[in-house]
Specification:
The chain is mainly α. It has 5 helices and no strands.
Length: 158
Amino acid sequence: MTQPQQTNAEVELKRNDQQYGDRLTPPEATNSADRANFPSRVRDHLANERTYLAWMRTAIALMGFGVVIARLRYILSPDTPGTGYGLALGLLFASIGLLTVLLSTYHYFSIRDAIDTHQYQPAGRWVVLFSLVIALLGTGVIYVLFAIPSRSRFPFLD
């Protein structure tokens, strides 16, 4: 008598049970299909967390860059023309960094809920919006750098 063929989900479940034991088995899983999908769900949540941490690093970098730009005005001579925008640009960077913290935290929890309810749909609008904001901030940095006269830009080279 021949053995019945195992489905891919059952083979995957057996391999995961052998490799990880009961650590990956959700307590609410009652059938093999639910148990087989659990590692995928875990990977989705871990990917969501990695994305959240990447946004946090980006926010910290923006805030740090804002502080550097705001403090840079103290290095330059006060009578140097065109240095009045450094503080405003630095505050703008720091504010965008703080806003990134708030939006990414909201986004993390909304994606977590969408993964749990199996309703996740990737949204590209945040990526486009954030890219535009960073492009505008980069344009502001370039403007501030070139607004400073060339002789005072690098006084140690004179």
